[in-house]
Amino acid sequence: MTASSSTSSKSRPALGLAVVCAAHFLIGADGLAVAIALPDLQQGLAAEAIDAQWVLSAYGLAFGGALLLGGRLGDLYGRRRLLVHGMLVFACGSLLAGAAQALWLLIAARALQGLGAAAAVPAALALISSMYPPGPARTRALSLLAAMATVGIMSGLLLGGVITDLLGWRWLFLLMTVPALISAAVAPRVLPEARDGRPAVRLDFGGAVLVSAGLMAVLFGLTGVEHGGVASVRTLVPLVLGVVVLVLFVLWERRTPAPLIRFGILRVRSLRAASLAVGADALAFTSVVYVGTLFLRNAQGYGALQAGLALLPVDVVALVVSCFGARILARWSPRAVLSGTTVLIVIALLWLARAPVPANYLIDLMAPLAVLGAALPAAFIVATHEAVADVALDEKGLASGIFETANHLLGGAIGVAVYATVLAASGYRAAFLTAAFLVVLFGLGAVFQARGKTSSSARVRIGDRSEDR
Question: Do 372 and 418 sit in the same domain of this protein?
Answer without folding.
Answer: yes
